[in-house]
Write a structure and sequence with these properties.
The structure holds two protein chains of two kinds. By secondary structure, chain A is of the alpha/beta class. In chain A, the strands form two sheets. A six-stranded mixed beta sheet of chain A has the order 6-7-8-3-9-10, with helices on both faces. Chain A has a four-stranded antiparallel beta sheet with strand order 2-1-4-5, with helices on one face. In chain A, helix 6 links the parallel strand 7 and strand 8. The N and C termini of chain A lie far apart (49 Å). Chain B is built from twelve helices and no strands. In chain B, helix 5 packs across helix 7 and helix 7 crosses helix 9. The longest helix of chain B has 38 residues. The chains are: A alpha/beta, B mainly alpha.
Chain lengths: 254, 274
């Protein structure tokens, strides 16, 4: 049994004539946390969305947990149950309460019994510290709480890997910490995670490896300390300089 | 002498009230109210219409409308899904249906169904089924467009979340999209129920028996036997018994979903980035 959970080879994605991913090779090992950083428009979200086929790649190969997603005959619904996804905009089902948000896919997709689904849901709500919000409606929750519910919803499917697409970008600054705390705890528990983020501090402290993307390519990759602490590539350096110290930009920045 | 902005606004408002008073006074003075009272407010004829106007006509109007609405809603949902289908012929068929049934007077559709269906399929429906088919097939065309708009108004992120949890496209549509779409379109659907209530007056064309009369037919029938327009007034009031509460409900729902819309961007995170 391989220790590689996600393997991407030669991945290309174009929207019409706009080529967003120009040949990506990357992999995520079991239990690893891999953070993808890079300027907006660099293709990092598209890469993440290709890993569960929310975007259809135009070329290359994606294998998750031994299943080739790019095979036209793949049972994508089945494969997706093993790939948890957390969105920037939370996307809680707005007509369902918190408990139903966590149980609906367990019941309809995994065919779990109502009782089992509720047990799993409550366990995961406790993991994200929101067991008391079981009966709340999504619009009664703060953004941070919604995102933690969304994480618990993804966890309730018992995924092999969790994908996070800028999970804190839509949050008010004071709510970011709660969500990052939950993600840090997941990482400590050994969850395999692929995270697109702008939180450099989080990437530096939690990630086993960091990928820097720009212009549809992976420019630099390695341990967090190296990519964020001592970047080798000039483009990584200038990106980090802009992100970490936005007020001290040189005149060439714009 | 120049008026200040405030004085001018006041003068315009006074002018508007004055116009209202003049028009109302003119109508009140020129109409022959004694004749109107005689024509419309014959208490004897009005009294004779009870209780049948309620127990037969109003009841039938409600039954016909409810049946037509139920069938129309079901067919409308199917048409809306066809309109959004990835199979092109489904889209075309739904589009042609909607355009034809919206573009042709309901009366002609009723006649076509009443005479056409038995000829085409050698089927003889009972009157109630014919009414349901006639009202429903017209209502469906309007409701299909409303439902389609509702489905398209459900944020794309909801579908992505459902798919990312392993739901098939059909499963996501049934479990996530349609329930949310119906919440969005509840106010316009209520309005369509009001329109359908009034359209039910056209089914006199289907040649019903006395005990099957709905309000308009009942009113006209009474009219033909009495030297007074009172039956029309009574029938009209009975329609209002149905449509006024529905109109109220529609506005209430609109306010409620309107209030919800404010929180929707927040709950999808879009409000934060704005």
């Amino acid at each position: 049994m391989s220790d590689v959970v996600v393997e991407v080879t030669g991945l290309k994605k174009a929207f019409g004539s706009l080529e967003v991913l120009k040949g990506i090779d990357m992999s995520v090992n079991r239990g690893d946390v891999v953070c993808i950083i890079g300027p907006s428009g660099s293709g990092k979200s598209t890469l993440l969305r290709c890993v569960n086929l929310l975007e259809e790649p135009t070329g290359g190969k994606i294998v998750v947990h031994g299943v080739e997603l790019t095979d036209p005959d793949v049972d994508i619904d089945r494969a997706r149950t093993k790939i948890g996804m957390v969105f920037q905009s939370f996307n809680l089902f707005s007509h369902l309460n918190v408990l139903a948000n966590l149980t609906v896919a367990q019941r309809k997709v995994l065919k779990r019994s109502e009782q089992e689904a509720q047990e799993v849901a409550l366990r995961n709500l406790e993991r994200v510290g929101l067991a008391d919000k079981v009966n709340a409606m999504p619009n009664q929750l703060s953004g941070g709480q919604q995102q933690r519910v969304a994480i618990a919803r993804a966890l309730s499917m018992d995924p092999d890997v969790m994908l996070f697409d800028e999970p804190t970008s839509a949050l008010d600054p004071e709510l970011v910490g709660d969500v990052l705390g939950v993600m840090r705890q997941l990482a400590d528990e050994g969850m395999t995670m692929l995270v697109v983020t702008h939180e450099m501090q989080f990437a530096r402290e939690v990630a086993d490896r960091v990928l820097f993307m720009d212009g549809g390519y992976v420019i630099e990759e390695g341990p967090a300390e190296q990519v964020i602490g001592a970047p080798q590539h000039e483009r990584t350096q200038s990106f980090l300089a802009r992100v970490l110290d936005p007020t001290h930009q040189g005149p060439s920045g714009a | 002498m120049a008026l200040s902005k405030r004085q001018r606004a006041q003068a315009i408002r006074t002018g508007q009230y004055a116009l209202l008073v003049v028009v109302v006074a003119a109508l009140a003075l020129t109409a022959d109210w004694e004749q109107v009272r005689k024509a419309f407010f014959n208490t004897e004829i009005a009294g004779a219409m009870f209780p049948n106007v309620i127990t037969v006509a109003l009841k039938n109007t409600i039954i016909y409308t409810a049946l037509g609405f139920a069938f129309g809603l079901a067919l409308g949902l199917v048409l809306a899904l066809m309109r959004l289908s990835s199979v092109a012929p489904y889209r075309w068929i739904a589009m042609v249906y909607i355009e034809v049934f919206r573009g042709v007077p309901a009366l002609l559709v009723f006649i076509a169904i009443y005479y056409g269906v038995p000829i085409a399929f050698q089927l003889q429906f009972d009157p109630l089924s014919t009414v349901m088919l006639a009202l429903g097939s017209v209502g469906a065309a309007y409701m299909a467009e409303t439902i389609r708009a509702g489905i398209q108004a459900v944020p794309k992120g909801q579908i992505e979340a459902a798919r990312s949890l392993g739901m098939s496209s059909a499963r996501a549509t049934i479990t996530i999209v349609i329930p949310q779409a119906f919440r969005i379109i509840l106010p316009p659907l209520t309005n369509e129920l009001i329109l359908l209530t009034k359209d039910s007056s056209l089914i006199y064309i289907l040649g019903l028996f006395r005990e099957q009369y709905e309000l308009t037919k009942f009113g006209r029938e009474t009219l033909s036997r009495s030297p007074s327009l009172t039956p029309i007034l009574i029938a009209g009031l009975c329609y209002l018994i149905i449509t006024l509460p529905l109109g109220h409900l529609s506005r209430y729902l609109e306010k409620r979903t309107g209030g919800k819309k404010v929180s929707t961007p927040e709950s999808t995170g879009l409000g934060v980035s704005a």
